[in-house]
Protein backbone atom coordinates (compact mmCIF):
# COMPACT_ATOMS: atom_id res chain seq x y z
CA UNK A 1 0.00 0.00 0.00
CA UNK A 2 1.20 3.51 -0.80
CA UNK A 3 2.48 5.53 2.15
CA UNK A 4 0.40 8.37 3.57
CA UNK A 5 2.87 10.92 2.25
CA UNK A 6 2.85 9.35 -1.24
CA UNK A 7 -0.94 9.53 -1.30
CA UNK A 8 -0.89 13.16 -0.21
CA UNK A 9 1.69 14.04 -2.87
CA UNK A 10 -0.32 12.18 -5.50
CA UNK A 11 -3.42 14.21 -4.72
CA UNK A 12 -1.34 17.38 -4.86
CA UNK A 13 0.10 16.44 -8.24
CA UNK A 14 -3.30 15.84 -9.79
CA UNK A 15 -4.72 18.91 -8.05
CA UNK A 16 -8.29 17.65 -8.42
CA UNK A 17 -10.29 15.20 -6.33
CA UNK A 18 -13.48 13.98 -8.00
CA UNK A 19 -16.15 13.51 -5.32
CA UNK A 20 -18.19 10.52 -6.42
CA UNK A 21 -21.62 9.24 -5.44
CA UNK A 22 -22.19 5.75 -6.84
CA UNK A 23 -25.68 4.34 -6.65
CA UNK A 24 -24.55 0.94 -7.90
CA UNK A 25 -21.17 -0.76 -7.55
CA UNK A 26 -21.73 -2.08 -11.07
CA UNK A 27 -20.94 1.45 -12.30
CA UNK A 28 -17.57 1.62 -10.53
CA UNK A 29 -15.58 0.01 -13.30
CA UNK A 30 -16.97 2.24 -16.07
CA UNK A 31 -16.44 5.30 -13.92
CA UNK A 32 -12.84 4.32 -13.12
CA UNK A 33 -12.13 3.85 -16.82
CA UNK A 34 -13.61 7.26 -17.65
CA UNK A 35 -11.55 9.01 -14.95
CA UNK A 36 -8.33 7.30 -15.99
CA UNK A 37 -8.97 7.95 -19.69
CA UNK A 38 -9.82 11.56 -18.89
CA UNK A 39 -6.41 11.93 -17.25
CA UNK A 40 -7.48 11.95 -13.61
CA UNK A 41 -6.82 8.63 -11.86
CA UNK A 42 -8.28 9.85 -8.57
CA UNK A 43 -11.61 9.28 -6.82
CA UNK A 44 -13.17 10.08 -3.48
CA UNK A 45 -16.00 7.56 -3.23
CA UNK A 46 -18.50 8.85 -0.72
CA UNK A 47 -20.13 6.70 1.93
CA UNK A 48 -23.49 8.19 1.03
CA UNK A 49 -24.71 5.03 -0.63
CA UNK A 50 -24.44 1.34 0.27
CA UNK A 51 -22.41 0.85 -2.92
CA UNK A 52 -19.41 2.78 -1.55
CA UNK A 53 -17.25 0.00 -0.10
CA UNK A 54 -17.66 -2.37 -3.05
CA UNK A 55 -17.03 0.50 -5.49
CA UNK A 56 -13.81 1.38 -3.67
CA UNK A 57 -12.79 -2.28 -3.85
CA UNK A 58 -13.34 -2.39 -7.62
CA UNK A 59 -11.50 0.87 -8.28
CA UNK A 60 -8.60 0.18 -5.91
CA UNK A 61 -8.08 -3.30 -7.37
CA UNK A 62 -7.05 -1.70 -10.69
CA UNK A 63 -3.86 -0.50 -9.03
CA UNK A 64 -3.61 2.63 -11.17
CA UNK A 65 -5.78 5.03 -9.18
CA UNK A 66 -5.61 6.99 -5.92
CA UNK A 67 -8.86 5.79 -4.39
CA UNK A 68 -10.24 7.22 -1.18
CA UNK A 69 -13.44 7.25 0.81
CA UNK A 70 -15.54 10.35 1.37
CA UNK A 71 -18.24 11.36 3.82
CA UNK A 72 -16.62 9.15 6.45
CA UNK A 73 -18.28 9.92 9.76
CA UNK A 74 -17.24 7.07 12.07
CA UNK A 75 -14.25 4.91 12.95
CA UNK A 76 -16.22 1.87 11.76
CA UNK A 77 -16.48 3.45 8.31
CA UNK A 78 -12.71 4.03 8.34
CA UNK A 79 -12.31 0.28 8.82
CA UNK A 80 -14.77 -0.45 6.02
CA UNK A 81 -12.94 1.96 3.71
CA UNK A 82 -9.47 0.67 4.60
CA UNK A 83 -10.60 -2.96 4.25
CA UNK A 84 -11.88 -2.12 0.76
CA UNK A 85 -8.52 -0.63 -0.22
CA UNK A 86 -9.04 3.10 0.28
CA UNK A 87 -5.77 4.97 0.75
CA UNK A 88 -7.30 8.15 2.12
CA UNK A 89 -10.37 9.09 4.10
CA UNK A 90 -12.20 12.39 3.75
CA UNK A 91 -14.65 13.70 6.35
CA UNK A 92 -16.91 16.73 6.15
CA UNK A 93 -15.76 17.80 9.62
CA UNK A 94 -13.15 17.00 12.22
CA UNK A 95 -13.62 13.82 14.26
CA UNK A 96 -10.88 12.70 16.62
CA UNK A 97 -12.16 9.10 16.41
CA UNK A 98 -11.96 9.11 12.61
CA UNK A 99 -8.51 10.72 12.49
CA UNK A 100 -7.12 8.35 15.12
CA UNK A 101 -8.50 5.26 13.38
CA UNK A 102 -6.97 6.49 10.10
CA UNK A 103 -3.61 6.65 11.89
CA UNK A 104 -4.07 3.11 13.19
CA UNK A 105 -4.99 1.85 9.73
CA UNK A 106 -2.20 3.73 7.95
CA UNK A 107 -4.52 5.72 5.69
CA UNK A 108 -4.36 9.46 5.11
CA UNK A 109 -7.00 11.46 7.01
CA UNK A 110 -8.41 14.57 5.35
CA UNK A 111 -10.87 15.99 7.87
CA UNK A 112 -12.91 19.11 7.26
CA UNK A 113 -11.94 22.43 8.87
CA UNK A 114 -13.22 25.90 8.00
CA UNK A 115 -12.39 27.97 11.09
CA UNK A 116 -9.16 28.81 12.88
CA UNK A 117 -10.27 26.74 15.88
CA UNK A 118 -10.98 23.73 13.68
CA UNK A 119 -7.60 24.06 11.99
CA UNK A 120 -5.93 24.22 15.42
CA UNK A 121 -7.83 21.13 16.52
CA UNK A 122 -6.64 19.35 13.37
CA UNK A 123 -3.05 20.38 14.06
CA UNK A 124 -3.34 18.96 17.57
CA UNK A 125 -4.21 15.62 15.96
CA UNK A 126 -1.19 15.85 13.69
CA UNK A 127 -3.19 16.75 10.58
CA UNK A 128 -1.68 19.48 8.40
CA UNK A 129 -3.83 19.11 5.27
CA UNK A 130 -7.55 19.70 5.74
CA UNK A 131 -10.62 19.71 3.57
CA UNK A 132 -12.15 23.20 3.45
CA UNK A 133 -15.80 22.29 3.26
CA UNK A 134 -18.32 23.52 2.24
CA UNK A 135 -16.01 25.93 0.45
CA UNK A 136 -18.29 28.38 -1.30
CA UNK A 137 -20.66 28.89 1.61
CA UNK A 138 -17.79 29.09 4.13
CA UNK A 139 -16.36 32.25 2.61
CA UNK A 140 -14.86 30.84 -0.57
CA UNK A 141 -11.36 31.54 -1.80
CA UNK A 142 -11.09 34.72 0.30
CA UNK A 143 -11.67 32.70 3.45
CA UNK A 144 -9.05 30.11 2.47
CA UNK A 145 -6.51 32.90 1.90
CA UNK A 146 -7.32 34.54 5.23
CA UNK A 147 -7.09 31.23 7.07
CA UNK A 148 -3.82 30.30 5.36
CA UNK A 149 -2.11 33.46 6.61
CA UNK A 150 -1.65 32.42 10.27
CA UNK A 151 -1.22 28.71 9.47
CA UNK A 152 1.88 28.72 7.30
CA UNK A 153 2.26 24.93 7.18
CA UNK A 154 -1.37 24.03 6.62
CA UNK A 155 -2.64 23.02 3.18
CA UNK A 156 -6.28 23.09 2.14
CA UNK A 157 -8.47 21.01 -0.14
CA UNK A 158 -11.45 23.28 -0.81
CA UNK A 159 -14.56 21.38 -1.82
CA UNK A 160 -18.22 22.29 -2.19
CA UNK A 161 -19.68 24.57 -4.82
CA UNK A 162 -16.56 24.59 -7.00
CA UNK A 163 -16.68 24.14 -10.78
CA UNK A 164 -15.01 25.31 -14.00
CA UNK A 165 -16.03 28.93 -13.37
CA UNK A 166 -14.39 29.38 -9.96
CA UNK A 167 -11.74 26.63 -9.96
CA UNK A 168 -8.97 29.13 -10.75
CA UNK A 169 -9.81 31.24 -7.68
CA UNK A 170 -8.82 28.31 -5.50
CA UNK A 171 -5.99 26.75 -7.47
CA UNK A 172 -4.17 30.08 -7.59
CA UNK A 173 -3.81 30.08 -3.79
CA UNK A 174 -0.41 28.61 -2.79
CA UNK A 175 -1.91 26.97 0.33
CA UNK A 176 -4.39 25.01 -1.78
CA UNK A 177 -3.14 21.46 -2.19
CA UNK A 178 -5.95 20.26 -4.44
CA UNK A 179 -9.60 21.07 -5.11
CA UNK A 180 -12.44 18.62 -4.64
CA UNK A 181 -15.71 18.57 -6.50
CA UNK A 182 -18.38 16.56 -8.22
CA UNK A 183 -18.76 18.65 -11.37
CA UNK A 184 -16.82 16.19 -13.56
CA UNK A 185 -18.63 13.16 -12.13
CA UNK A 186 -22.32 14.10 -11.98
CA UNK A 187 -24.32 11.45 -10.17
CA UNK A 188 -27.00 11.28 -12.87
CA UNK A 189 -24.47 10.71 -15.66
CA UNK A 190 -22.88 7.87 -13.71
CA UNK A 191 -26.26 6.33 -12.93
CA UNK A 192 -27.25 6.50 -16.59
CA UNK A 193 -23.92 5.01 -17.69
CA UNK A 194 -22.88 8.03 -19.75
CA UNK A 195 -19.17 7.51 -19.15
CA UNK A 196 -18.16 9.23 -22.40
CA UNK A 197 -19.53 12.46 -21.01
CA UNK A 198 -17.84 11.85 -17.65
CA UNK A 199 -14.56 11.36 -19.51
CA UNK A 200 -15.12 14.57 -21.47
CA UNK A 201 -15.88 16.58 -18.31
CA UNK A 202 -12.88 15.02 -16.58
CA UNK A 203 -10.52 15.87 -19.45
CA UNK A 204 -11.90 19.40 -19.46
CA UNK A 205 -11.30 19.73 -15.70
CA UNK A 206 -7.76 18.38 -16.05
CA UNK A 207 -7.04 20.88 -18.84
CA UNK A 208 -8.39 23.74 -16.75
CA UNK A 209 -6.32 22.71 -13.72
CA UNK A 210 -3.22 22.36 -15.90
CA UNK A 211 -3.75 25.82 -17.34
CA UNK A 212 -3.93 27.20 -13.83
CA UNK A 213 -0.61 25.58 -12.98
CA UNK A 214 1.02 27.55 -15.81
CA UNK A 215 -0.23 30.94 -14.62
C1 LIG B 1 -18.46 16.90 -0.96
O1 LIG B 1 -18.97 16.07 -0.27
O2 LIG B 1 -17.24 17.11 -0.90
C2 LIG B 1 -19.32 17.76 -1.79
O3 LIG B 1 -20.61 17.24 -1.89
C3 LIG B 1 -18.81 18.06 -3.15
O4 LIG B 1 -19.31 19.29 -3.42
P1 LIG B 1 -19.86 19.67 -4.87
O5 LIG B 1 -20.89 18.64 -5.20
O6 LIG B 1 -20.46 21.04 -4.69
O7 LIG B 1 -18.70 19.66 -5.80
Structure description:
The chain is α/β, with parallel strands linked by helices. Helix content is 46%, strand content 15%. It has helices at residues 4-14, 28-37, 52-61, 75-84, 96-105, 116-124, 140-148, 167-171, 187-191, 195-214; strands at residues 16-20, 42-46, 66-70, 88-90, 108-110, 129-132, 155-158, 179-181. The strands form two sheets. Strands 5-4-3-2-1-8 form a six-stranded parallel β-sheet, with helices on both faces. It has a two-stranded parallel ribbon with strand order 6-7. Strand 1, helix 2 and strand 2 (42-46) form a beta-alpha-beta unit. The N and C termini lie far apart (34 Å). The model has no long low-confidence stretch (mean pLDDT 97). The structure holds 3-phosphoglyceric acid.
Number of separate structural domains: 1
- Cofactors, ions and other ligands in the entry: 3-phosphoglyceric acid
**Structural class assignment:** alpha/beta
Mean pLDDT: 97
* CATH fold node name: TIM Barrel
Q: What's the CATH architecture name? A: Alpha-Beta Barrel
Total helical elements: 10
Query: Can you tell me the CATH superfamily?
Result: Aldolase class I
Percentage of residues in strands: 5-15%
Radius of gyration: 16 Å
The termini sit apart by 34 Å
The unreliable regions are none
Largest sheet: 6 strands, parallel
> CATH top level?
Alpha Beta
Name the helicity range: 40-55%
Global morphology:
globular
* Total beta strands: 8
Give me the strand/helix succession: HEHEHEHEHEHEHEHEHH
What oligomeric state is this? Answer: single chain
Amino acid sequence: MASVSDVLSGLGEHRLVPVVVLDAAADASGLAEALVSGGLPVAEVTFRTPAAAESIRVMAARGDMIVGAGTVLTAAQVDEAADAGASYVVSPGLSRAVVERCGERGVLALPGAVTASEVMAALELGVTTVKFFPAETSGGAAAVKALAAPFKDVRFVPTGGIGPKNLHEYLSIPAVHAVGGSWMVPRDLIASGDFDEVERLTAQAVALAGREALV
